[in-house]
Write a structure and sequence with these properties.
heterodimer, A: mainly alpha, Non-ribosomal Peptide Synthetase Peptidyl Carrier Protein, Chain A, B: alpha+beta, 4-stranded antiparallel β-sheet, 17 strands, globular
Chain lengths: 71, 342
């Protein structure tokens, strides 16, 4: 699992072609639905189970990537 | 008297009102309490039998129940009159020597069902089947998909009841009033259907991310979905059911308050049959929060509508998305006119 693979999963979750590590996540795109979909995708792709309450508070893609790496 | 006040009396008295779902009253002594005009009504599980009655002790008029929902005996806190298994129980019964206690009873209301939905009426002018018309099988099917209540909220809205209902009837306000919630779905009208006085609005979700996400969790949550979009159903006169896909179902009552400046808003959220785990719990909890935010935004804007701006005439400036309002007003005008000619 590397950073680019995680970025691909985030982009897929947000229905975007690609995503930058510097991108901010506001409530208009990073909502509970995105969190639920992302957790399912991470579980399938990396066999990791994430805590939804931690994910909801992330403010940018950088934090999200780090959270997946640390889990 | 204002038209809305005349109508509220007629509608409250003569129509059936959707007051709940059987899943809310599964256990003996479960109850729900609702405010409807100047009536305070209770639906209660009396040893497996559901009954609806005015929340007033027939002895001295004390309220049996204070909370909006719970599990407790029908017991008057004043002198201990109670009701159990179809029978009113009166302490020191032999000491009522100068009156006929056989006449004492709860003031019971008519009760009927559509699937698992519970309806009550005070003095119905038609059967529930007649009132629901072709909406009946649709409601039956929905009611069977609702499994348990996950939220209940009640508060007064500072507006007259038709203003609250008409707000729920039209999507035109969504972009301005709900910019960070409902507006994100980018709803696009697909169908506007009328079933006598009742109506359904069906809309597609035009936000690609949300639509894809809903499709995905639809599979993960194993939910039985019959329409992959958003629906809002007016169950005339005062109730709405709204839902997206069918993970949760929102039931709203906009009952007239005890003045033309008040609407009694009862909101309940039900989950469908989902595989319960941390993730579904999280999703359901976030849906509760979002729903409450949407209704709070609605209440805020409705409280800013000048109460005398409302009447039963069609909207002078009607956006296409507001046509359901004209349908609603047309029905109200007919009821009002019929009353005047009688």
């Amino acid at each position: 699992m590397n950073e680019n693979q995680i970025l691909d999963v985030i982009a897929e979750t947000l229905e975007m072609d690609s995503i930058e590590i510097t991108m901010d996540l506001d409530e208009r795109i990073w909502d509970s639905l995105a969190v639920v979909v992302f957790i399912g995708s991470v579980s399938n792709a990396f066999n990791k189970i994430l805590d939804p309450s931690e994910l909801y508070d992330v403010k940018n893609v950088q934090q999200l990537v780090q959270l997946v790496i640390d889990s | 008297m204002k038209d809305s006040q005349i109508l509220s009396k007629i509608l409250v008295d003569n129509y059936w009102h959707l007051v709940g779902h059987k899943s809310e009253l599964m256990n003996d002594k479960d109850y729900i309490k609702l405010d409807l005009l100047n009536r305070n009504i209770v639906v209660f599980n009396d040893d497996g039998e559901l009954l609806a009655f005015d929340n007033i002790c027939p002895h001295r008029g004390t309220k049996f129940f204070s909370d909006v929902s719970g599990n407790q005996n029908i017991l008057c806190p004043y002198h201990g009159w109670s009701y159990r298994k179809g029978e009113l129980k009166i302490p020191k019964k032999k000491e009522f020597s100068n009156c006929n206690l056989d006449e004492a009873d709860l003031n019971k209301l008519n009760l009927d069902y559509c699937g698992d939905f519970i309806f009550v009426s005070f003095n119905p002018k038609q059967s529930l089947d007649e009132q629901l018309s072709k909406l009946k099988p649709i409601l039956e099917e929905i009611s069977n998909k609702m499994v348990s209540r996950i939220d209940l909220d009640y508060y007064e809205w500072s507006c007259d009841w038709p203003i609250a209902i008409e707000n729920a009837l039209e999507p035109y306000h969504i972009a301005k009033v709900h910019p960070n919630t409902l507006s994100l779905l980018k709803l696009k009208t697909e169908q506007d259907l009328s079933y006598n006085e009742n109506s359904i609005w069906k809309a597609r979700i035009n936000n690609k991310r949300i639509e894809a996400g809903m499709q995905k969790i639809h599979n993960d949550f194993d939910v039985d979905v019959d329409y992959d979009g958003y629906q809002s159903i007016l169950i005339f006169p005062f109730s709405f059911l709204s839902f997206t896909y069918g993970f949760t179902y929102s039931l709203q009552n906009f009952f007239p308050g005890n003045s033309s400046k008040k609407t009694n808003f009862h909101s309940r959220l039900f989950s469908s049959k989902v595989n319960k785990n941390d993730l579904t719990e999280y999703f359901l909890n976030s849906t509760i929060k979002t729903n409450r935010k949407i209704f709070s935004e609605d209440e805020n804007i409705c409280s800013q509508v000048y109460e005398d701006a409302w009447n039963v005439e069609p909207l002078k400036f009607c956006q296409d998305g507001e046509l359901r309002i004209n349908h609603f007003r047309e029905k109200l005008k007919y009821i009002l006119t019929k009353r005047e000619t009688q």
